[in-house]
Amino acid sequence: MPSGGDGKTDPLAGGSKGSSALGSGGAGTTFVPTEGSLREAADGNGRLIGAAVAAGHLSDDAMYKALAGREFNVLTPENDMKWAATEPTQGTYTFGLGDLLVKFAQNNNMRVRGHTLVWYQALPAWVTTLSGDQLRQAMIDHVKAVASHFKGKVYAWDVVNEAVSDSSPTSLRDKDSVWSKLGPSYIDDAFRAAREADPEAKLFYNDYDGEAQGRPKSDTIYNLVKGLLERGVPIDGVGLQMHLDPRYLPPTDGIRQNIDRLVALGLEVNITEFDVPVGQIPGDLAAKFQRQAEIVHDVFKLCVAQPKCSAITFWGVTDKYTWLKDPQFMFRGMGPHYPLPFDESYNAKPAVAAIKAAFAGN
Ligand code: G3I
């Protein structure tokens, strides 16, 4: 999961020479609230705007359900298509919650981004006991079964998620990932299996802390996907998660350069798990939300300016249910973090007007 850098000095924080960090240019900008939903604004630009959605909340929270359908034209299952949810026992598949999300999306004319086929987390215990050919075959079987089940219903898959190491960001994960037992070829195998199972779905590599050119993890991701393309492995895009930490923002120019170099490889870029926790932003709540809106605005401006940045998805619908409330993920400093565009009572925060402004070219 994303590293927060708590207590660490980030030499790149605040931007590289000659550039500025996200949100630094907009101090005092007021984003004027306008009519209409986020998805109407995105539709007008031919873009997707999404949110991570949980099947459980759709079932037990009518306001959540209404907000998700009204504001977003694509959804990502936050947890319900992960391996632990879909193949808890080897060879026995449980697609009920994923199917529920697909149905909700269809009823609301939304697309579905599948998340995720191969990740080192959210695995059932049985996977971690395997090795060698058995592990590789279990992975290929899982990818094929899940991608086949959702064929025609999921427009894009995060095929491999978070393969790059945090402690050694120029390499793939080692001991912390069961997939290291297979060596780097597991990534090729996963993409090939996904393409075989669903030839129409767009296939993405997805990761965090890889947003800005010049940061080690970004360069590793770039080289990883370049290598896949050179070997003829089917990949269509890169997901930049964009779980930002306002204390260590990536430089604006670095993000733009990174997106551009990925596009130059022939890939699409999607922002896949955007959130801006405000706990460590100074000032009162109004000041925190204003700064959050400026950061959100800059990311949307960057994406809207690049035709191949086709989708931006927030990691949640409302501050009420953000993953950053979970005590096990307290690595962004003290909260509350309120990282999303809609507050705990489902009201639009300044970020909503900022997004619409970016889509309107302002
Ligand atoms: O549903 C159970 C509940 O029954 C139980 O009582 C409780 C006890 O801890 O756990 C609940 O499950 C939790 C689940 O979220 C639903 O809330 C899991 O413990 C918890 O590990 C799980 O966390 C998810 C995490 O991925 C791990 O799968 C987060 O919701 C989800 O937001 C997070 O998403 C990831 C992306 O997939 C990949 N990128 C990073 C991102 C944030 O970490």
Q: Any descriptors?
A:
binds ligand G3I, 36% helix, 362 residues, 13% strand, eight-stranded parallel β-barrel, alpha/beta
State the gist of this model.
The chain contains twelve helices and eight strands. It is α/β, with parallel strands linked by helices and 362 residues long. The site of ligand G3I has 10 residues, from loops.
Topology:
Layout: H1 38-43, E1 48-53, H2 55-60, H3 62-71, E2 74-77, H4 83-86, H5 96-107, E3 111-118, H6 125-128, H7 132-149, E4 156-161, H8 185-197, E5 202-207, H9 216-230, E6 237-240, H10 252-264, E7 268-274, H11 285-304, E8 309-314, H12 350-359
Parallel strand pairs: 1-2, 1-8, 2-3, 3-4, 4-5, 5-6, 6-7, 7-8
Helix pairs in contact: 7-8, 11-12
The protein binds ligand G3I.
Ligand G3I is lined by residues 1, 78-79, 82, 121-122, 161, 241, 273, 323.
What does this structure look like?
With 362 residues, this protein is α/β, with parallel strands linked by helices. Strands 1-2-3-4-5-6-7-8 form an 8-stranded parallel β-barrel, surrounded by 5 helices. α7 runs parallel beside α8 and α11 runs parallel beside α12. It is globular and about 60 Å long. It starts with 37 loop residues before the first helix and ends with a helix. The protein is built from 12 helices and 8 strands. Helix content is 36%, strand content 13%. The N terminus is likely disordered. β7, α11 and β8 form a beta-alpha-beta unit. The structure holds ligand G3I. The site of ligand G3I has 10 residues, from loops.
